[in-house]
């Protein structure tokens, strides 16, 4: 169910000549893992001028069709005039950064965006259900959400957008046993619990399509009677999407089909998801970042429905997202793993 941010805020109330759509989008991290897919699908719509704001030292390969501005966005707020200038006139700022980047970097971007009067920000949130506080607390993400929300509220300029897509499927499948339990080099598979806990998981391309579709909606309802989907309906809320709803055992069946293997070809073990999470949590508190995947993934497989969005209705149909082929996505994840393209943590 979508709730408008303000029933009185409609396109007809805007100044004459105002556009009721998003035309200018800025993105931090356009060449990164998720950023390149967001950029690719935004460009495909041919509805937006997309500006990549990238560090002067960046060597990332960026797609054609982007407007590229090289700016050091890690500078202090007293020295960010160049960043503010780059953000002026932008309607949306998409922030895509590693979870290991100092959190203050995101806050600096929020403050620069406020100075530039950017109305919408997606503040580096592509994953967990942002409304599930027990899940976020157990995944060390609640403080990050609350810190960003508090800063946005304090600044009083922008509204947040967040993408609830859970784990990226190809990345999680091929990224080692700490994630979905698979090691394709050693051909081992670890079941978390009985392996029958379902979760929603999303491909990178589906994430890109979702954001491109969201930003292609009308910004505001035309008038009070207009009930069609709008971008404003997702302000300070979340977009819920998925490519697949799967258990680990469902994934394994797809893996066997793709690889032409049987159970006998794999070494299969079983561990408690709760114990894996506790071990990962304890290691993280001691400063061991290599335990982060183990901690955050095992928490999704608790038998409490957290990885299944607690049964929330998805927005796939509203955004006209396609039904994807599971085995194709599985093959892509395995291929990435075999080529060594994914970060790998035991």
From TrEMBL:
Swiss-Prot/TrEMBL keywords: NADP, Oxidoreductase
SUPFAM superfamilies membership: NAD(P)-binding Rossmann-fold domains (SSF51735)
Gene3D superfamilies: NAD(P)-binding Rossmann-like Domain (3.40.50.720)
Species this chain originates from: Aspergillus lucknowensis
Pfam families noted in UniProt: NmrA
Taxonomic superkingdom: Eukaryota
All copies of domain NmrA-like, residue ranges: 24-158
Protein name per the record: NAD(P)-binding protein
């Amino acid at each position: 169910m979508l709730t408008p941010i303000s029933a009185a805020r409609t396109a007809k109330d805007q100044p004459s000549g105002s556009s009721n759509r998003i035309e200018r989008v800025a993105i931090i991290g356009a060449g990164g893992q998720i950023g390149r897919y967001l950029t690719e699908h935004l460009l495909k719509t041919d509805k937006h001028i997309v500006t990549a704001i990238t560090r002067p030292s960046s060597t990332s390969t960026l797609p054609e069709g982007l407007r590229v501005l090289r700016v050091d966005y890690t500078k202090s707020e007293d020295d960010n005039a160049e960043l503010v200038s780059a953000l002026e006139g932008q309607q949306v700022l998409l922030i895509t950064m590693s979870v290991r980047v100092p959190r203050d970097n995101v806050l600096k971007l929020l403050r620069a965006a406020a100075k530039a009067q950017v109305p919408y920000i997606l503040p580096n949130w592509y994953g967990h259900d942002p409304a599930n506080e027990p899940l976020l607390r157990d995944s060390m993400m609640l403080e990050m959400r609350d810190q960003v929300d508090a800063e946005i509220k304090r600044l009083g300029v922008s509204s947040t957008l967040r993408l609830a897509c859970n784990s990226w499927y190809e990345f999680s499948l091929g990224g080692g046993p700490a994630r979905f339990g698979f090691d394709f080099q050693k051909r081992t598979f670890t079941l978390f619990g009985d392996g029958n806990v379902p979760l929603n998981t999303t491909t990178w391309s589906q994430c890109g399509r979702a954001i491109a579709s969201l930003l292609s909606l009308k910004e505001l309802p035309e008038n009070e009677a207009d009930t069609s989907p709008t971008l404003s309906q997702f302000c300070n809320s979340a977009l819920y999407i998925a490519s697949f709803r799967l258990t680990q055992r469902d994934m394994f069946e797809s893996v066997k089909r793709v690889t032409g293997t049987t159970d006998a070809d794999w070494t299969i073990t079983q561990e408690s998801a709760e114990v894996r999470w506790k071990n990962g949590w304890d290691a993280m508190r001691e400063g061991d970042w290599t335990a982060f995947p183990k901690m955050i993934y095992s928490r999704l497989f608790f038998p409490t429905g957290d990885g299944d969005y607690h049964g929330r209705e998805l927005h796939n149909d509203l955004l006209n997202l396609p039904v994807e082929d599971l085995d194709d996505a599985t093959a892509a994840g395995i291929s990435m793993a075999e080529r060594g393209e994914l970060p790998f943590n035991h």
